[in-house]
């Protein structure tokens, strides 16, 4: 399996696998309940991870010419 595929799978695990772990309201982080903070954190991390996947993809910078 390529590293790009593994990196792209990390946000899926973080969001769906971690929700049962993060299902708490009491600790407030940045004024948000912990579960909302967890989701927002993974949305931001997903953007960064996808930027890394784009940079690692060899076909990303090539344009199709006719």
From TrEMBL:
Q: Where are the transmembrane segments?
A: 32-54
The highest taxon in the source lineage is: Bacteria
**What InterPro entries does the record point to?**
DUF3311
What UniProt keywords are attached to this protein's entry? Membrane, Transmembrane, Transmembrane helix
The identity of this protein, by name, is Lipopolysaccharide export LptBFGC system permease protein LptF
């Amino acid at each position: 399996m390529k590293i790009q595929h593994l990196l792209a799978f990390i946000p899926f695990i973080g969001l769906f696998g971690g929700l049962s772990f993060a299902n708490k309201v009491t600790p407030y982080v940045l004024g948000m309940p912990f579960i909302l903070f967890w989701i927002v954190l993974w949305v931001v991390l997903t953007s960064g991870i996808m930027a890394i996947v784009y940079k690692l993809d060899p076909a990303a910078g090539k344009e199709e010419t006719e």
